[in-house]
Design a protein that fits this description.
This protein is 15% helix and 36% strand. The protein is an alpha+beta fold and 319 residues long. It folds into three domains: 59 residues, Dna Ligase, domain 1 (2-Layer Sandwich); 119 residues, 2-Layer Sandwich (D-amino Acid Aminotransferase, Chain A, domain 1), CATH 3.30.470; 125 residues, Beta Barrel (OB fold (Dihydrolipoamide Acetyltransferase, E2P)), CATH 2.40.50.140. The two termini are 42 Å apart.
């Protein structure tokens, strides 16, 4: 039994593939793990090859009870939010050293592949056969180890539903292919990208003279604005310089949001930015935002409005 198997990594694509040879699963937002079960030992090995057995005690303890002498199970360790969605921020807190409302006992391992079983290397088998062997081992469990179910649906329809539910995206896998380490085209990931409009309330200067390092963004909440994070990508050097000139022309006497940021330059909230982003963090900030354009704000309702919880609010557009 190998001490480590480098994982198969999906290739990022723009849209789901079509055809009966493709199987679809939820894309879990967590830490990729291989659970190694051997006589007298269970190890949790990360994608990079690190032994994180101590961080995933509940998963390791349950792996002892799966009823097989030796196994390598491929999957993703996650923490689920109140809506049953994987949340990477919650997971980081659960495995970290800082105090958190979530602890390591809440981490769930979604198993989606079986690479080795009772002395037999399964990697040359097609995915459909590996999943057939994995399912009776983990399906139906509701504890620390669970089965990542295949979704019987058209890929495009599944992606649309996944995005509307606030999931990170979906994964497509060829049922007829063996398991190959490294980034492979027979596994594909399609991410949900939200796109909305946010008020520009200022910027942080770049180390490049005359350019912007980060735009400071806000959303509507009630009768005011609330800071939702900074955006530092998506523009050319020329666009960055032009943005800075635009904002310098409308300086604010006082910030439009409550924010203490050393070196920040605040502007009156007259411009809005079109921003593409992945999701909302637990503390109400945009995750992986990318600038797509700027224009004058025609009216206050043009900007994104935060409801009770920003991560549950619906986006205007999914890409």
């Amino acid at each position: 039994m190998p001490r480590r198997v480098e994982p198969c990594v999906p290739t990022l694509v723009d849209k789901p593939p079509t055809g009966p040879e493709w199987a679809f699963e939820v894309k879990w937002d967590g830490y990729r793990l291989a659970v190694h079960v051997e006589p007298g030992e269970v190890r949790a090995v990360t994608r990079g090859g690190y032994d994180w057995t101590k961080k995933f005690g509940s998963i390791v303890a349950e792996a002892h009870e799966l009823g097989h002498t030796s196994m390598i199970i491929d999957g993703e360790a996650v923490v689920l939010d109140d809506e049953g969605r994987s949340d990477f921020g919650l997971l980081q807190r659960a495995v970290g050293k800082r105090p958190s409302s979530h602890d390591a006992s809440e981490i769930v391992f979604f198993a989606f592949d079986l690479l080795y079983l009772d002395g037999r290397d399964l990697r040359k088998l097609p995915l459909s056969e590996r999943r057939r062997l994995l399912e009776p081992i983990v399906a139906g469990r509701a504890g620390a180890i669970r089965f990542s179910e295949e979704v019987s649906a058209d890929g495009a329809e599944f992606l649309c539903v996944a995005c509307e539910m606030g999931l990170e995206g979906i994964v497509a896998k060829r049922r007829d292919r063996p398991y190959r380490s490294g980034r492979q085209p027979e596994w594909q990931k399609i991410k949900c990208a939200r796109r909305d409009t946010f008020v520009i309330v200022g910027y942080e200067p770049s180390t490049m003279p005359g350019a912007i390092g980060r735009l400071l963004l806000a959303a509507r909440k009630g009768d005011g604005l609330v800071y939702v994070g900074g955006c530092g990508t998506g523009w050319s050097n020329k666009e960055s310089t032009a943005l800075r000139e635009l904002l310098n022309a409308i300086p604010a006497e006082r910030p439009a949001v409550t924010l203490r940021r050393k070196g920040a330059v605040f502007a009156r909230p007259l411009l809005v930015a079109d921003v593409e982003y992945r999701a909302w963090t637990q503390d109400g900030k945009l995750r992986h935002p990318s600038f797509k354009g700027v224009r004058e704000m025609e009216g206050p309702t043009e900007a994104y409005e935060i409801a009770d919880e920003p991560k549950l609010a619906k986006s205007n557009e999914f890409k």
